[in-house]
Amino acid sequence: MRMMLRAVMDTPSGNAVIQDGSIAGVIERLVEQLHPEATYFASEDGRRACFMVFDMTDSAQLPVISEPMFQAANAQVTVTPCMDLEDLRRGLGQLAGSAKAAGDGSFVG
Length: 109
Known about the structure:
The protein is of the alpha+beta class. It has helices at residues 11-19, 22-34, 62-73, 85-102; strands at residues 2-8, 38-44, 47-55, 76-81. A four-stranded antiparallel β-sheet has the order 2-3-1-4, covered by helices on one side. A hairpin with a 2-residue loop joins β2 (38-44) and β3. α2 (22-34) packs antiparallel against α3.
């Protein structure tokens, strides 16, 4: 399943891992492990953030994925299912099909 990792670093911890150079290794290991389809770096609420979109095949991967950022940068890590445009189109098509099957144009779950 396509997932998005969002890791927002604590500022003092982020400063420390940047100054000692260790954050580059943490990020490189994550990229090697996850083979993300996209990786972005930005600020979020004034803190350093990393976003990676990747395929997760087993929920048992969560500790291996998140712990390096927890431990290295005291990061707030979130892993969330996400979609690309084609996934959204398929989902909306299924939603439309469910509404038509209900007969009144509304979605019935």
